[in-house]
Amino acid sequence: MKLRILRTLYGLAFILNMYISYASGKDELRPPNIVWITSEDNSKHYMKLFDKNGVETPNIRSMANHGLLFTKCFSNAPVCSVARSTLISGIYSPRAGSQYHRKLKKVPMPENVQMFPAYLREAGYYTTNNSKEDYNFFKPHGVWDESSKNASYRNRKGEQPFFHVINIGTTHESSLHFGKDEMANPTKNDPARLSVQPNHPDSNVFKYTNARYRDNIVTMDGQVGEVMHQLKEDGLLANTFVFYFGDHGGVLPGSKGYLYETGLHVPLVVYIPEMYKQLVDATMGSRVDGFVSFIDFAPTVLHLAGVPIPESMDGKPFLGPKVKAEELAQRDETYGYADRFDEKYDMVRSFRKGRFKYIRSYQPFNFDGLMNNYRYLQLAYREWADLYRAGKLNDVQARFFQSRKPELLYDIESDPYETQDLSQNPEYSDILVEMRNGLRSWTANMPDLSFFPEHYLIGHAFDNPVSFGKENKYKIRKYIETADLALLDFGTAEKGLIKSLRATDPWERYWGLIACSTFGARARSVTSLVKTISQNESEKPINRVRAAEFLGLIRAENPIPLMTNALYETKDGAEALLILNAMVLMKDGQGYSNISLSTNKLDEEVKENDEVKRRLAYLVQN
20 to 30 Å CA-CA from 158: which of 5, 338, 426, 542? Predict the structure, then answer.
């Protein structure tokens, strides 16, 4: 309480000082207004302002001419709720428990940290959001003065400074849920003149989807222009910072929901008002190549507003007093995370440093194209899968439907669409080790809560995720070590794997089993031990499923009966969803198609889980 009072007094004193200075003729000290214009599902790759294969966006370009264009801005997550949870908190989601999309249970904000607009309100700002929130946190009282489709900065009192968020949904994924009959409708962008990404089929469906998506981006740019026009008409452009950015990557197949650059690398332009040029150590109209990420946005807004930044936030400001251009240009690191998206489970982390990108798949047998109902509402996704099943894709295009390597390394400058993996190239061995160690250190020090399965976190951690992480930091480090056995050759890893499978800690056994599945047939020597777990594990039934998964992957045993029994046994909807994910993998990835399920045998709570319903519908109907 004392901290909150001090923060409020500090903010009010800061603003009062600005008003006194303004009244004295020192316009540059007037409290800044700040506006966020967020467009849904846009990576930087489809705007000519950022990429040669993009479309013209004259309104966003005009903002850049009067501000700064950030060439290296990254969402830390490739999907809305996780990305927005990072934005509103300034905290890495796997540390805070907000990493799953859609949330099965909301989590509280970490102790001593508020959603950042609350700090602005305490300092005298008028805060409005129009209107998407989509947080995985419980929203405390006092974050917004108004959050609705009617929210407007115009409702503030007099010259009160404001922070206003505008969400544009024109480019959302759902805009590409069209059928083949709609392809008769012409697009403004000529499909024949657009280059299809090298990992995509060069088909009419993909060309049309590319064109239609770019049409939406042009429309979105016009909406950005309308916001800027309104600010100008209201006489506010002289003292208002305006941020335009995408809320995560784009929606062409393999982008949204994936840690590739098209899922994470977003456009960012910041309009700099005349009254505040002195707060920005850069020439207006210039490009900034230093790395910024969504964890940095909350600290940046607070810093511009003169509000102290909570120590618990993970990011740091990239604009404002004492942020020097030279230091900003040296920033060259960003991290990404991908866990469950709707009903599809995975666990992938990424680390980009300069031109190199490292992707660590902790469950690489969960191939990218594993069924996700919402993704496959898009015609291009469905065609991509059909062409794969028909054997009509080249090696690069087919990878989306095949097991991944546990670690991948790319040179983004020479390979922007991540098609040439360098992890096995001896020339890059030192870089691989550096990137591996960098990501390992980040996950361990966070610590990354996803090394416990979601259903366990819901039951044991989500009342206070950060505290749980601190209490279990040593265990998480051990699970990371166990998972990383999969990065060794099997001969070197075998002894450690056997030790993990015999460990007293059930989650060490859990990660030992996952590491075995990553090795696949190379780990046949532990088959007998894994079979024992599949039959006798009683402490954590999910370990029987993980054991069955390994047996199915190496063709030692049909895993479906074991998984089905575990599904009928569980009373936890989140655990049931994880089991069903394994069953879908066995069906679509391994050909175990004889799956018969009786919903009458499921626990009532399990049957009420919406994500479970989607998985069940898919398995039963297909």
Answer: 5
- Provide φ and ψ at 183, rounded to 5°: -70, -10
Mark 91-126 as b/e (b = at least 16 C-beta within 10 Å): bbbbbbbbbbbbbbeebebbeebbbbbbbbbbbbbb
H or E stretch covering 34? strand 33-39
Q: What is the pLDDT of residue 38?
A: 98
Quickly tell me which residue has 């908190």 as its tokens.
89
Q: How many helices (H) and strands (E) does the chain have?
A: 23, 13
Flag whether pLDDT at 370 surpasses 60.
Answer: yes
Instruction: Check if the beta carbon of residue 599 is closer than 8 Å to that of residue 580.
Output: no
What are the start-end ranges of the E strands in 342-382? 348-353, 356-361
Measure the N-to-C terminal CA separation of the chain; round to a whole number of Å. Answer: 56
Helix (H) or strand (E) holding 293: strand 292-293
Phi, psi (deg, nearest 5) at residue 69: -110, 120
- CA–CA gap between residue 73 and residue 266 (Å, rounded): 6
Instruction: Determine, yes or no, domain membership for 20.
Output: yes
Say if CB 308 and CB 10 are below 8 A apart. yes
Here the tokens at position 97 are 């428990």
Look at residues 296, 318, 281, 242 and name the one whose alpha carbon lies nearest to residue 64: 242
Q: How far is CA 106 from CA 91, 341, 465, 469, 518, in A?
A: 15, 15, 11, 17, 31
Of all residues in the chain, what percent carry a pLDDT higher than 90?
94
Which one from 60, 79, 80, 118 is the annotated catalytic residue? Answer: 80
Q: Is residue 7 part of a domain?
A: yes
The whole-number pLDDT of residue 10 equals 47
| Coil vs helix vs strand at 66 | coil
Q: Which of 12-16, 243-247, 314-318, 445-449 has the lowest mean pLDDT?
A: 12-16
80 is annotated as an active-site residue: yes
Query: What's the domain range around 5?
Result: 1-29
- Residue 132 lies inside a defined structural domain of this protein: no
Spatial separation of the C-alpha atoms in residues 30 and 6, rounded to whole Å: 22
Distance from C-alpha of 204 to C-alpha of 182, rounded to nearest angstrom: 13
pTM over 0.90: yes
pLDDT at 30: 74
Q: Which of 73, 24, 28 is nearest to 273 (CA)?
A: 28
The Cα 46–Cα 55 span in angstroms is: 6
pLDDT tens for 274-310 read 999 999 999 999 999 999 999 999 999 999 999 999 9
**pLDDT value at residue 29:** 65
Q: Is 257 left (phi over 0), alpha (psi -120 to 50) or beta?
A: left
Which letter, b or e, does each residue of 579-611 get, where b requires 16 or more Cβ atoms within 10 Å of its Cβ? bbbbbbbbbbbbebeeeebeeeebbeebeebeb
Query: Residue 528 is part of a domain; what is its CATH number?
Result: 1.25.10
Number of domains in the chain: 2
